[in-house]
Amino acid sequence: MQQRINISLPEETITLIDRVASKGNRSRLIEAAVRHYVKAMGKVRLERKLNEGYRKLSQSSLDIAAEWFPSDEDAWQKSGL
User: Rounded to an integer, what distance in angstroms lies between the CA atom of residue 69 and that of residue 53?
Assistant: First the structure.
């Protein structure tokens, strides 16, 4: 189901749309552009969240490694390797 809406765009943007869209296909072009934008922004947000999570985990991993380092070092020395 489609719904008609009214939007305002700068003349420059309309000129760009008309260069790319064939006559009568502005709506399809705008729909495709919006879908592409939303998909791209979803990826950007996901990457941002993953990076934040990795940063938080990296500090936790460093803390754990520092805590266990003396035990690991002692085990290596005792093994004679």
Answer: 24
